[in-house]
């Protein structure tokens, strides 16, 4: 089964994605990252109200194989976090781009996404690995 990379998202080479809707950015991790991690057992996310700087770690994801830091693809303030996933991190594998979102941020500078990759570029990166 081929992994999906929706075209309306921007991607980082560290496998986070961003869906921008006005000044709200929905952040998650790509299907590729979920697939590589395997069974996800623990998720650590920042609290609502926390300010994140682009490029800094905002939490970690732990699977039976590894613990990986997750990095903010854009700066902003956390307005919502997906507590259902914190309670049951395995759900992430079911729908990484829908119900499996991690955070929603009120962004400070949309231009920070200029360096992020389009879906086709990200697909080329991960499928070329």
Automatic annotation (TrEMBL):
The gene is gcvH. It comes from the Bacteria. The glycine cleavage system catalyzes the degradation of glycine. The H protein shuttles the methylamine group of glycine from the P protein to the T protein. The modification N6-lipoyllysine is found at residue 65. Belongs to the GcvH family. Residues 24-106 form the Lipoyl-binding domain. This is Glycine cleavage system H protein. It comes from Geitlerinema calcuttense NRMC-F 0142. It holds the Pfam family GCV_H. Binds 1 lipoyl cofactor covalently. HAMAP family: GcvH (MF_00272). Keywords: Lipoyl.
């Amino acid at each position: 089964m081929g992994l999906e990379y929706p075209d309306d998202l921007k991607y980082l080479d560290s496998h986070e994605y961003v869906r921008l809707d006005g000044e709200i950015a929905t952040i998650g991790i790509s299907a590729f990252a979920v697939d590589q991690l395997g069974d996800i057992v623990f998720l650590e996310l920042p609290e609502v109200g926390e300010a994140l700087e682009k490029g800094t770690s905002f939490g970690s994801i732990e699977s039976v194989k590894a613990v990986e830091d997750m990095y903010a693809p854009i700066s902003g303030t956390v307005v919502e976090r997906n507590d259902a996933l914190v309670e049951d991190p395995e759900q992430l594998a079911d729908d990484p781009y829908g119900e499996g979102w991690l955070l929603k941020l009120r962004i400070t500078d949309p231009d920070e996404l200029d360096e992020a990759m389009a879906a086709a570029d990200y697909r080329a990166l991960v499928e070329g690995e």
